[in-house]
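Before a colleague's protein record goes any further, I have to sign it off. What it holds is a sequence and that sequence's fold in token form. My question to you is simply how this chain folds and whether the tokens agree. Thanks in advance; the entry in question is below:
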Amino acid sequence: MADATLVEENFSLGSDLINSLQEQGVDIRGAYWKYSSDSKRWKLNIATEIAKKGEKELFLKAIKAQTKIDLSLVQFVTPESPFYKALHSFIHVDGRKADIKNNTVNGIFIEHIIAYKIT
């Protein structure tokens, strides 16, 4: 079972990071916490076109943001990633929290996500 406490403790830190990255000019198309029962961990996935060039520039911007989030919990993905595309095909979220569990969309299983933004 997913450890929701971890997400609640980090949800506001993730929001701070997302806001800071946007202030630095990063166009964020999606941002969501994704749970994996295999690793028993939550990861903050941030979908942005800049991820096509690699994660180095994005992690440097994340460090510049000086948020208290553990950056080992952050993963940058492209909007073309299959998981993000599946999310985007059935939900649009911006400005509210969406909690989705145990769904399959376009052949992609969504175990548990808590989304800030899917646009």
